[in-house]
Design a protein that fits this description.
Layout: H1 2-8, E1 16-17, H2 18-27, H3 29-35, H4 48-62, E2 67-68, H5 70-77, E3 98-102, H6 112-119, E4 124-128, H7 142-155, E5 159-163, H8 167-176, E6 183-186, E7 201-204, H9 216-223
Parallel strand pairs: 3-4, 3-5, 5-6, 6-7
Antiparallel strand pairs: 1-2
Helix pairs in contact: 2-3, 7-8
Length: 231
């Protein structure tokens, strides 16, 4: 971690400004990958949305100060950065694992390749497209929860997944206790402000969701409301 900070702290004075961080992310691929994994920040000064995310990241690390020190950097990443460990071979039998996916919000028409990857992954997949797309704010999901539960009961999934706008249905299923099993959320819905304590939830978030963009700081705050990670 100190090595990354030293790359950012180009003049070696122990303090890093926001502009120093931005310049380092633009010019150094190792810094960019550490700060925003999987995102190319080389054009951050020409991309307003990307700059806002980097700005929010700096503010979260520096805690409102104009410059951050290594102690700020270490404190922020201590919970999120772990040494890479070889992952043991999975013992999951995909053919016997059933995944129930809330269709609206998953972008099957906009991004059919994503859906096709899931279909080709070897799992048993059930898509739920019999419910409306909850595009409007404060969309009433309650009238459709029993319908979703009936489809889930018939399929008996091991995992429930939703993306973006569809996440509001998952929140409704949690509140009704219709589903208390493992859950995957792609880009957390803004109504998801607290995670259940008695179940496993995985949140995958990136910069491609323009409907509900999230900062790393907000996501870490959300994850902190859930139970400790399990090995």
């Amino acid at each position: 971690m100190m090595d990354i900070f030293n790359l950012i702290d180009a003049d070696g004075n122990g303090y890093v400004s926001k502009l120093e961080l931005v310049a380092s992310m633009q010019s150094n691929a190792a810094v960019d990958e550490f700060m925003t994994p999987g995102v190319d920040s080389s054009t951050v000064m020409d991309d307003e949305a990307m700059f806002e995310k980097v700005d929010a990241l700096f503010e979260a690390i520096a805690g409102g100060k104009k410059r951050m020190q290594f102690s700020d950097f270490e404190r922020y990443y201590r919970k999120t950065v772990t040494a890479a460990q070889p992952r043991p071979p999975s013992d999951v039998n995909r053919r016997n694992t059933r995944i129930f996916i809330i269709g609206p919000g998953f972008g099957n028409q906009i991004n059919p390749r994503q859906s096709q990857m899931i279909e080709n992954s070897g799992y048993q997949v059930k898509w739920c497209f019999t419910i409306p797309n909850p595009e409007q704010p404060n969309f009433p999901v309650e009238p459709y929860l029993d319908q979703i539960k009936a489809e889930m009961d018939a399929f008996r999934p091991h995992v429930v997944a939703a993306a973006s706008k569809g996440g509001v249905y998952v929140i409704g299923l949690w509140h009704r206790r219709y589903w208390r099993g493992p859950t995957l959320m792609l880009n957390a819905h803004p109504m998801c402000t607290k995670l259940p304590q008695d179940m496993q939830v995985v949140i995958a978030s990136g910069s491609n969701d323009e409907v509900y963009p999230n900062t790393r700081a907000n996501l870490e705050e959300l994850m902190a409301t859930g139970p400790p990670n399990k090995p």
